[in-house]
Design goal:
It is a single chain. This protein is mainly beta. The protein has a domain at about 10-85: Thrombin, subunit H. It has helices at about 80-85, 100-110, and strands spanning about 10-20, 25-35, 40, 50-55, 65-70, 75-80. It has a 6-stranded antiparallel barrel with strand order 1-2-3-6-5-4. The N and C termini lie far apart (about 50 Å).
């Protein structure tokens, strides 16, 4: 079984969009589902999928830069470029947490 790598909940939409290549060529695609991190697209069989592209959605959503993550026949799994850098949560120490040295910990434990 394949491991789920999607960040965020997937929404089934089946909406039209326009895929624009970096070279300026564009063609219509069908967005089958979308999440905060990416989407699944159905492209015409005769079109080549570029590694990176821009999607213009028919429902007025803002254009998104995307990158192909997988491709199976005429289906493409794409990750939105602006999510790639922020998808992994950043763990920061909360203000009340203080770093301590090993010596400090040993003194607290009574083993100094």
């Amino acid at each position: 079984m394949e491991q789920e790598r999607r960040f965020g909940k997937r929404e089934s939409v089946r909406m039209r969009a326009r895929l624009r290549t970096p070279a300026g060529r564009s063609y219509d695609v069908l967005v089958q589902d979308i999440s905060d991190g990416g989407c699944r697209i159905e492209k015409p069989e005769y079109e080549m999928a570029p590694e990176r592209f821009t999607l213009r959605f028919s429902d007025g959503r803002p254009d998104r830069q995307a990158e192909v993550v997988w491709q199976k026949g005429n289906l493409i799994g794409a990750e939105f470029a602006d999510v790639a850098a922020t998808a992994m949560p950043v763990h920061r120490m909360s203000p009340e947490v203080h770093k301590m040295s090993l010596g400090d910990l040993r003194r607290i434990a009574g083993r100094a």
